[in-house]
Every structure is written in structure tokens, then in C-alpha cells.
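Could you help me review a protein record that somebody else here produced? This is what I was given.
***
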Amino acid sequence: MAPIITLTTDFGTRDPFVGAMKGVILGIAPDARLVDLTHEIAPHDVLEGALALEAAAGFFPPGTVHLAVMDPGVGSSRRPLAVAAQGQFFVGPDNGLFSFALAGQGWSAVCLEAAAYRPPRVSRTFHGRDVFAPAAAHLALGTPLPNFGRAVTDPVLIPWPTARRQGDGLVGEVVHADRFGNLVTSVRAADLEALGPAEALVVELEGEEVGSIVGCFADIPAGGAGALVGGSDRLEIAVREGSAAASTGARRGSRISVRKR
């Protein structure tokens, strides 16, 4: 099977940045299959990029290379990183972007410093093209991880949003609002299962009751609000055919609680 490389950035599609990265990759690995996860991450938003990667990476075959660039520290002393974890590879800046993959055991990481895997001149403002894209291409072709540089045992980790038990319920937070205005939270499906049947639970947003947990969007009354477990196995708050983000004013960090009736 042809190697697969995914791309996730905050570059958007107006400028040629993504295209230049793809050109570099195809110059090294012309048979690679390139998959755009998203290029619409909010500028410099490392957590949003990490959440997008976490939601999608597990659906790709073993050996997939995930190239991700949300890099406000480009050109500084921050390390360029390649990680092997969960049977896949992750390439990008060492700024917490791969925290979800580094949370468990069995990972390894290196600093991308070998001159053999980058052009003679490296732009200090475009490591996506000159450092990360070549590394991703060579990884996809089977170059061993240690060839790229010295081992990294202390990668940067960002605080990862989770839910916590409070009494007989849960407390979490909004972590993301998707394109439809659905409020994605730090509460996982497994967290809810530990509390009991979904129909016996009530969800609150900033102390205001949203309602019970339903199975799908169509179970919410037209124009009404409700909660459900979305495709990323996270609790979401939605307004049917509307925007929960717009109607509630909630944003990342807004408090979510789940309690028994």
C-alpha cells in the first residue's frame, strides 16, 4: 500500500503554504497519498490542532504519518519533533501538539536535526516546508526514526482537558465549537457510562440546564437544545439546525456539569 501522510495546519487555503509542503513531500515520496485533515485550525491554536488530530488519527492505518503545523514559535529554540506512538508517526513542533499521543507508554521521539533530511537552506519562518515536510516524506518511505536526530525524552505537554467526578456527577468544560456551533466538551462517553444510563442524567452549561442526553441530533426538538455523544466520543451540546455556540455564548473553558436526576 502507498504510504499515507496527513496534513493538519492553521495555514488556511488562501496562501500557497500547504501546496508548497505537498510539493516537497511529493518530490521525495511521489507515491505518497496525501490527506488533508484540516487547514482551518484557528491561528496559533495548539490545543485545537491537538484535538483535531486526536479525533482523526485513530481512523488511519498503522504506519500513517501525521504532519501537523501550528507553530507560533517557529524559528525560535523550540525543537522540531518526530514521534512514534500508537502505531503511527507524528511530525511537527515540540509545543504540546502531540500531547494526546504522548500521554501513555510505548512512545519514542527524536529531534529533527539531521542535515540529510532537510534542504541546504532552511527558512526560519517556514519549518513546515523545510523541516517537517521532508521528515514526514522520509518517514513514510521507511527511514528509521533514530536517523533523524537525538532522542527526546521530555517533549512539551499541554494541560489536557478532562472531566472530574464531583459528588455523584461530573464537571468538565467546553473545549471546542465545531463548524455547526456544536459545543464539544471534555466529558467522554466512558465518563458518562460510569454514572449510569444516559436517560437518567441531566447536563448543565454554566449552571443552566440543557436537558437530557439523547442519541442523535434528530432526537432534539426543532430549534431546541440538547446533549449527545458525538463522533469523537465526547459529550456535545447542540441546537438542532442551529448553533449552540451562538445561542449560549459559551466558549472554550465554559463549565459543563452532568448530574443524576
